[in-house]
Amino acid sequence: MDSLQGKVAVVTGAASGIGLASARRMAGLGAVVVAVDIDGAGAERAAKELSGTAVHADVSRVEDWARIVEVANGLGGIDVALLNAGVTTGQEDIAALDEADYRRIMGVNVDGVVYGTRAVVPSMAARGGGAIVATSSLAGLIAFPGDPVYTLTKHAVVGFVRSLAPRLEQQHITVNAVCPSLVDTPLIDGEIRDTLAGAGFPLISPDAVADAVLFCIGGDATGQAVFVQLGWEPTPYRFRNPPGPRIEAAQGKVPPGWLAEQREQSS
């Protein structure tokens, strides 16, 4: 991507980590950045650095999204949205999951993406199109027993993006997910960081994820889950199609078990 000159980019979770790294890249390419974060002081710091506009908001609240869009429309409209805000539960024991933690993670990680997409699409359509990128995780593509509910939310983001893409494509809007492995952000707290360091597990730089965000914004492809791993360029994950129905067996035209017997005999 060579330029975002004249574009307006909404970035959630912009105060730190992936959001800040991506916002810096966008601003460097000429975009006007609307830096959104529940940390109001952090959003202000990011906006000051980037010569952008700060919005103190909770992405899980519909009314806050109305304010975000109002601010962006005041700057001309929305061309790019990075729906990046996210939290974890840090809980691997489902029996010990706290109700408040569950509601919080669903609100930020799922509602924040759904409400955000719903809010920005009309503005993008009015501009003739745009690009939406949602931050998922490698845990959106694989099982991660360390935090099953976090994994649930990130799978939800990938499924939402893939399902939404064909309809938004009709409005010249792309929507993709980035799926990084463990990233060096404030979500990796001291204990987890120490454990990973002791095991020699390297963390991905937020700048590497920003590369994937720009990859998504700058291309025409849509509905992709782009994984980010050390040593790899941003790469769309290839989903295998599930097996189709065995029509003959379903219609009762062959005896039960016949197909399995034929496969066994031919192997």
Provide the fold topology.
Blueprint: E1 8-12, H1 17-28, E2 32-37, H2 40-50, E3 53-56, H3 62-74, E4 80-83, H4 99-126, E5 130-135, H5 148-169, E6 173-180, H6 190-198, H7 206-218, E7 225-228, E8 235-236, H8 247-250, H9 258-266
Helix pairs in contact: 1-7, 3-4, 4-5
Can you offer a commentary on this structure?
With 267 residues, this protein is α/β, with parallel strands linked by helices. The chain has one domain: NAD(P)-binding Rossmann-like Domain (Rossmann fold, 3-Layer(aba) Sandwich). Helix content is 45%, strand content 15%. It is built from nine helices and eight strands. An eight-stranded mixed beta sheet has the order 3-2-1-4-5-6-7-8, with helices on both faces. The longest helix has 28 residues, at 99-126.
CATH architectural group: 3-Layer(aba) Sandwich
Order of helices and strands: EHEHEHEHEHEHHEEHH
Average per-residue pLDDT, rounded, comes to: 90
Q: How far apart, in Å, are the first and last alpha carbons?
A: 50 Å
Could you name the key traits of this structure?
267 residues; alpha/beta; Rossmann fold; 8-stranded mixed β-sheet; 9 helices; globular
